[in-house]
């Protein structure tokens, strides 16, 4: 039996070494600072540990091996939480189920803003990491089952009627 080769998840230095700067520019639009952590160092504020991104206040900590899906997911927690939680933010973003859905939806939208990433690749990396959705994949969820997430983002002024980010915090 032959196995299909798996594609490694995109990280902060792939594709191209300009990715870290591109992430910083994109997330800076939300007032979020991206701080690079040296290789092999523990990532401050990482909920999952290992190479996963960390959040402390308005700073998102990443290493070169941090997956882009993790960076966008944690950044979207920052964007989607209310100001009170944001002021206390350290490691655990909290939030309820509908907010978490909004985070995942916005994460996929923001992937389209990153050259070499895009929503299809983001969904594939989310699936590879282990995000779980009722329809079996992130893309199926995004395209067919995410009305609640889209509505929540609209209600909170985070996307416009066309489904584009509004570049503001909740």
As for the number of domains, it is 1
The major beta sheet can be summarized as: 3 strands, mixed
Number of strands: 3
Average the pLDDT over all residues and give the rounded result: 92
The proportion of strand residues reads 5-15%
Shape: globular
Count of alpha/pi helices: 7
* H/E element sequence: HEEEHHHHHH
Structure description:
- The chain has 170 residues and is mainly α.
- The chain has one domain (19-155).
- It contains seven helices and three strands.
- The protein has helices spanning 19-28, 68-80, 83-87, 97-111, 118-129, 138-144, 147-155; strands at 33-36, 54-56, 59-62.
- A three-stranded mixed β-sheet has the order 1-3-2, with helices on one face.
- A hairpin with a 2-residue loop joins strand 2 and strand 3.
- Helix 4 (97-111) packs across helix 5 (118-129) and helix 4 (97-111) crosses helix 7.
- Residues 1-5 have low confidence and may be disordered.
